[in-house]
Amino acid sequence: MRRSSKLMLAAALLITTGAAVAGPADDQVASAFNSFNAAFNKQDAKAVARFYTSDAIVLPPSHDIVNSPADIEKFFAGLFTNHVTGHMLQPFKIIQVGDTLVVASKWSANGRDDKGNATQLSGLATHVFQKQADKSYKLKLHTFN
C-alpha cells in the first residue's frame, strides 16, 4: 500500500471514529433535551419554564417575543391547552463556545388542526444554552418554526 493511501485510510478511520464518540457537550444536550421533553410531555408549564434563564427569550413561529419567566410559562401552558403533546427534540449540530452551547435541532410533536383532528407538527429549532454556576445548562434563547 502506498504511503498516501495509508495516510488517507488513517485519516478516514480517525474521522469515522471521532464522529462515533459523543463528547461532553453532546451528553449535556441529550440530558437537557430528555428532561425538557419529559416536562413538556407531562404538560407541566412551570417545569418547562425552569429550563430557561430568567432573562431568556423564546421566539415562536407566531412572531411573538416571549421574554419573561411568567410569559414563558404562559406560552407553554397555551400549547398544552391546545393539546400539543409527544414533544421530541433531535439535535443535529452542536457548537460549543466557552460556556455557551448552540444547538440546531429537529423537533416534532402531536397536535390538533383547526377542526380538532390529530395532526403531526414538526420543524427546526435553535437553542442557545448558557452554563450556570451549578454547572447545569439553561436556555438563554430558543427559536423554532
Structure class: alpha+beta
Q: Give the helix proportion (percent range).
A: 25-40%
Order of helices and strands: HHHEHEEEE
- Could you tell me how far the N terminus lies from the C terminus, measured between alpha carbons in angstroms? 51 Å
Q: What is the average per-residue confidence, as pLDDT, rounded to a whole number?
A: 86
Tally of discrete structural domains: 1
**In the CATH hierarchy, what is the architecture at level 2?**
Roll
Shape: globular
Please summarize the sheet with the most strands: 5 strands, mixed
- For the record, the CATH class is Alpha Beta
Give me the number of helical elements: 4
CATH-defined topology: Nuclear Transport Factor 2, Chain: A
As residue ranges, the low-confidence spans are: 1-21
Count of β-strands = 5
Account of the protein in words:
Helix content is 37%, strand content 39%. By secondary structure, the chain is an alpha+beta fold. It has one domain (23-144): Roll (Nuclear Transport Factor 2, Chain: A), CATH 3.10.450.50. The protein has a five-stranded mixed sheet, covered by helices on one side. A hairpin with a 5-residue loop joins strand 4 (118-131) and strand 5. The termini are far apart. The model is unreliable at 1-21 (pLDDT under 50).
